[in-house]
Structures are given as structure tokens and as C-alpha cells.
Amino acid sequence: MASIKPSFYFEPTNGVDTIMALITSALLKPNSLPFSPLQRVTPTAKTRRFSCKVLNSGHPDSELNQIQRKQSPLDSSFVSQLRRSCSNGKMSALANGVSVVAKEPDHDLKTQGRILFSDVVVQKRREVFWRGNWNALDIASAGIVLAMHLLSLCAPFYFNWPAFWLAAGLYLVSGLGITLSFHRNLSHRSFKLPKWLEYLFAYCGVQALQGNPIDWVSTHRYHHQFCDSERDPHSPIEGFWFSHMNWIFDTSTVIEKRGDSTNVGDLEKQPFYRFLQSTYILHPIALGALLYALGGFPFLVWGMGVRTIWVYHITWLVNSASHVWGKQAWNTGDLSKNNWWVALLAFGEGWHNNHHAFEYSARHGLEWWQLDLTWYVIKFLQVVGVATEVKLPSQLHKQKMAFNN
User: Fold this and answer.
1) Are both 176 and 30 inside the same structural domain?
2) Where's the Fatty acid desaturase domain (predicted)?
3) pLDDT for the residue 21
């Protein structure tokens, strides 16, 4: 999903207890979105000399990266100031008026448990359901998710093969609407399509009942900008279930973390996406009515209920499981993992560490054995001539992101 964040890696020159301070600041509107370090800075009296080097500055040809270079405070003068600070025996940074000093982590910091079968520690478990500040959007989102789950409970009693295959077909269509359109095309501009085809895939994504393209893309871009920090809209550092689905029902916290949504100007200027934003819920309702007219209640149960919650949880597993279980092939400085079984279910999205290393890449399964259905579709579209400017990671960028670099 074009990279929108430069990352700076600092390693101790004395070779003891490697400390990594990863500063993420791809701020499309610097004045409205304060700088945030990747990890919480904790009070301690010890500091160490750091050396600095750029690890991941994104794809040079990326449209989003060009926007970032124009607007981000991390320009060459800032980097020069950062290097001078390192040479003076400390690592400090100044961005958007906030001074950040990288120090040794406080080993006495109280945590709230480790997620099962993983090395991910929950720093602050966020309570969602028993809080008192539910707003209308939270209630509506919870109502829709609950309704789809309840509808799917009728599946065993209304099974027939046409309804089953309908659900399978809509899983493919709406799933690719999320992975190919919302994610790789709209969020990261990994490739270009003719507008009619771009809009068709985006409309398929709307039928996944996960929100309109503008809001979905905005949240996802903020996820990459503040990945696995306290400002990430959905990170397992606040609990597995919060990263999986509970964050959807706490819009006030998401808005508080990210500030105003100011990172989707490329979509907001297009009337089609503004139309989908203002009429979003009507489109899945229309699909449900059409399915009922074609095949009665079985089509509604399987085509809307079963298929929707299947795509729901597969998408959510990318946010939760792929930041908890799996392996890291690249030095991304976050919790992203390559998870093979999520990749199988989510059309290649489970190769999540690959994706976080090369956000602009249209291909997530970088090895020949890493199945990536979304990439196969993109490649087919490229071969027939409709997908252009398909971005892939260069060998030089891979070397920069390798752990042994």
C-alpha cells in the first residue's frame, strides 16, 4: 500500500545493547498533525551516543512520496540538524516544535500482558465496550457488524449450493475490491488504472461493507504513518481485539489519535469518491435487496451475512494477526509480520512485513512461493495493457531494508 514515511535508524557506536529509535513523520499537513515517535519515550537517566543512517526513505518515483517531500518537515536541513545532534553525543530531533530524545527503554515500565504465542506486549489495553462516550457512528457501526453476524447464524438453515457459490463469488469480488482497489491502488498508488476501471474496483470494495474509499484510505495511511505507536488507529499494543475490530467502535479515540483527516486530498477532489462517501450505506442495501429478489432469503443470508463477516474478519486479521504472529524478513522497525495463512485468506495481504518494508509495491508476495492472488490480478491487468506504472521494490531498496545492512 507508495511509501509515505521516511525512517531513520540509529545504532549505538559502542556495539552494546543495540537501540533503535525509529522516527516516523510523513506529515501531509504538518501543522495539524504533531510529530510522534514510533515508540513511547520513557524517563531514564542514561543516554548513549548514536550514529545515524537512513534506512527507508520510500520509493523515489512515488506520487505520495513527492507530495511528502514538499510538505514533510524531514527535509535535508532537518536531517543535517539531526546528524549534528548525533555527533554531539546525543540523539535528539525537532519536528513540528516537539523535541524528542531517544533514551534507553525503562525496563520497569508496567505492561498489561503478552499476547498469546507471540512476543507482542500490550502496553495499554483499551476498553471499548464499557465506556460511556459512544457516539452515533459507533452505535451504527456496531449495529451493522452485529446484524451481519446474526444474519450469518441462519446459514445452516438456509443452505443451498447456488447461495454458497454466490457467497464465494462475492468474496472474490468484494475482497479484491479491498485488497486491489482500496489498499494497493488507492492507499498506496502502487499502479494506475483507467478511471473507469479504477472506479469499478472501488465500487466492489464498497460492497465489502467496510466503509467508503475516502475514510478507509485515510485510516490506512495514518496506520502506516504512526505504525504500532500510540497514534496508530489499530495496533496490538492496545490489545489484540482492539487491533482486530474494537477500534471500529471507538471513532472518538481514532480521531483524537490522528487529528483531522487531511491525507486524502487526492481522493476528495474526485466527485466519484465524494459521491460514494455521501451515499455509502445505500449501495450495500441495494445489493441486499437485489440478492433477495434473485434468490430469496438464502441469497441474502449467504451473499450478505456469511460473505460479509468472512471478508470482515479476513481483513481485520491483517491488522491484528499480521502484527502479532509470523516472521519478519525486513527491518521495518514495527510489529508487522509475514503470516502465510492470513496471506492465503486475504489474497496476499498477509505478507505484511514485506508490505511495510515496501509500502509502494504492488506485489506483496516477493518470493516465488509467497502466494499473492492480488498481485496475480494486477500482473494480468498489466499484461493486457490496462495497469500501468506498476511499482516494485528495487534491489537497492531491498538491501537497505535487510537486517544485515
Assistant:
1) no
2) 160-377
3) 36
Phi-psi region of 149 (alpha: psi -120 to 50; beta: other; left: phi over 0): alpha
Count of structural domains, the chain: 2
Q: Are 379 and 328 within one domain? A: yes
Residues 164 and 256 in one domain: yes
Q: Which of 393, 362, 366 is nearest to 380 (CA)?
A: 362
The gap between the terminal CA atoms of the chain, to the nearest Å, is 24
Q: Are 261 and 215 in contact (CB under 8 A)?
A: yes
Greatest alpha-carbon pair distance for the chain in Å reads 73
- For residues 38 and 157, state if they share a domain: no
Report d(CA 178, CA 176) in Å as an integer.
5
Q: Which residues contact 203 (CB under 8 A, 6 or more apart)?
A: 177, 276, 283
236 with 299, same domain: the answer is yes
Predicted local confidence at residue 63, as pLDDT: 52
Last residue of a domain, one of 50, 83, 101: 101
Instruction: Measure the CA–CA gap between 225 and 103, rounded to whole angstroms.
Output: 22
Mind giving me the DSSP string for 44-67?
Answer: -S----EEEEEEE---TT-HHHHH
Residue 75 maps to a domain: yes
112 belongs to a structural domain: no
- Cell 489474497, located at residue: 347
Whether 161 is covered by a domain: the verdict is yes
CB atoms within 10 A of CB 387: 22
Chain centre to alpha carbon of residue 149: 24
What is the distance between the alpha carbons of residues 378 and 364, in angstroms, rounded to a whole number? 11
Beta carbons within 8 Å of 22's beta carbon, 6+ residues apart: 7, 8, 9, 37, 38, 39, 333, 334
What is the reported pLDDT for 124?
Answer: 87
DSSP H or E segment with residue 158: none
Residue 119 lies in a domain: no
Answer whether 349's CB lies under 8 Å from 179's CB: yes
Mean pLDDT, consecutive 10-residue stretches, the chain (405 aa), reads 41 38 35 31 32 37 46 36 39 32 38 88 91 93 98 98 98 98 98 98 98 97 96 96 97 87 94 98 98 98 98 98 98 97 98 98 98 98 98 97 91
Helical spans, DSSP H, in 46-193: 63-71, 76-87, 136-152, 161-176
Whether pTM > 0.70 for this model: the answer is: yes
Please give the residue range of the domain that contains residue 395.
136-401
**H-assigned helices in 155-281:** 161-176, 195-206, 213-225, 240-244, 251-258, 265-268, 271-279
